[in-house]
Amino acid sequence: MRYEKGSGGGPGVAVVWHRGDLRTHDHPALVAAVERGSIAGLVILDDNILNATSTRRRVLFYEHVRVLRATYRERGGELYVRTGEPWIAVPEFVAQLEREAFVTGVHALRSWSPYGSTRDAQTAAALTVPMHWHDGLYVRSPGSIVTQAGHGFSVYSPYLRAWRSGAPPEPLDAPARMTSPGLGNVDAGDIPDDVSDVPLPVAGEAAALRALVAFLDRPVHEYAASRNRLDGSGASRLSVWLTIGALSARTAAAAAWERPGEGAAKWIAELAWRDFLADMLYRRPELLHEPFTARWNTFTWNDSEADFAAWRDGCTGVPAVDAAMRELRATGWISNRARMIAAQFLTKHLRIHWTKGAKVFHEWLLDGDVASNTGNWQWSAGLGIDNAPYFRVFNPVTQAKQHDPHGEWLRRWVPESNGNAAVLPNAIVDLAQARRDYLEEAGAVR
Question: What pTM value is reported for the model?
Answer without folding.
Answer: 0.95
